[in-house]
Amino acid sequence: MQRLATPLVLLVLSATIASCVKNPYAATNRFYKQQARDFTRSLQTMPAAPDSVPAGRYSVGTTNFNLRKPNYVIIHHTAQHSVDETLKTFTLPRSQVSAHYVIGRDGQTYHMLNDYLRAWHGGVARWGNVTDVNSCSIGIELDNDGTEPFAEAQITSLLRVLSSLKRAYNIPAANFIGHGDIAPTRKNDPSALFPWPKLAERGFGLWYDAAVLTDTTAAPFALDSLGGVGPGITPREALRIIGYDTRDLPAAVSAFKRHFASAESGTELTEQDRRILFNLYRKCL
């Protein structure tokens, strides 16, 4: 009778097979390493005064510095049809787009760029007073075409990544936002199917108090007589305080509803929307 392979033999066989699998991104990985070496050389160079500016008597490097840390996490859906398609897009120089993390429907996660480096994921965007979102954020792309529910395995991996990022960089809960939030006139990702409440339960993202949906007599959430969201507060002001770019108010309202009131669409605020908005506004003061 043939003996069954021992666990050790199976482990060795698995490792051997894995070592024989050719990485289709070996060439772009070499490019990544070369870029990293170039950046390292630049950082090792002692700073000097710009040309045409009188230099000091000697070179002086401060002892008090560290790397800039990300303070926001921006969540996207890929709007493509597979992880392989997205990985290819993010490794083509002509695409001029990238992200720090790509998470597949099956939960497999590709960490494509060191967290301290600047990915090209946000584009023309704004959140509050931040106008260069790429320089202070982590970009996470979820393999999803924008019309389908997000897979459970994918969200499980996302939560683990977010937990790691929050712990490593002390990112505030309110700073976990979507691409559509920072670019409301251009983007709608992640879609209205994204489970923001599940993230908020774990401390990733701003969310409203459930009481505002049922307690219609509570004074702090009552609408003012002018149709605002609270005493003397207009929807534009409340959205701006939360972080939305309100130069195009209908687009900002649409982005807000997609994130916080996904059962509805459009650019008009319902009474319930206004209650939610006022509640979130108060949390941001």
Summarize the structure.
The protein is α/β, with parallel strands linked by helices and 285 residues long. It is 36% helix and 7% strand. It has helices at residues 7-20, 26-44, 83-89, 152-169, 179-182, 196-201, 235-242, 249-260, 271-284; strands at residues 72-77, 101-103, 109-111, 137-142, 176-178.
Q: What would your notes on this structure say?
A:
The structure is a single chain. With 285 residues, the protein is an alpha/beta fold. It has nine helices and five strands. It has helices at residues 7-20, 26-44, 83-89, 152-169, 179-182, 196-201, 235-242, 249-260, 271-284, and strands at residues 72-77, 101-103, 109-111, 137-142, 176-178. A hairpin with a 5-residue loop joins strand 2 and strand 3 (109-111). It has a five-stranded mixed beta sheet with strand order 3-2-4-1-5, sandwiched between helices. The chain is globular, with a radius of gyration of 23 Å. The protein folds into two domains: 72-201, Peptidoglycan recognition protein-like (Lysozyme-like, 3-Layer(aba) Sandwich), CATH 3.40.80.10; 210-284, no CATH class.
Poorly predicted runs: 218-222
Name given to the CATH architecture of the largest domain? 3-Layer(aba) Sandwich
Overall tally of domains: 2
CATH superfamily of the largest domain: Peptidoglycan recognition protein-like
Percent of sequence in beta strands: 5-15%
As laid out across the biggest beta sheet, the strand order is 3-2-4-1-5
Strand runs, count: 5
Distance between the termini: 75 Å
The CATH topology label of the largest domain is Lysozyme-like
Counting H and I runs of at least 4 residues, what is the number of helices?
9
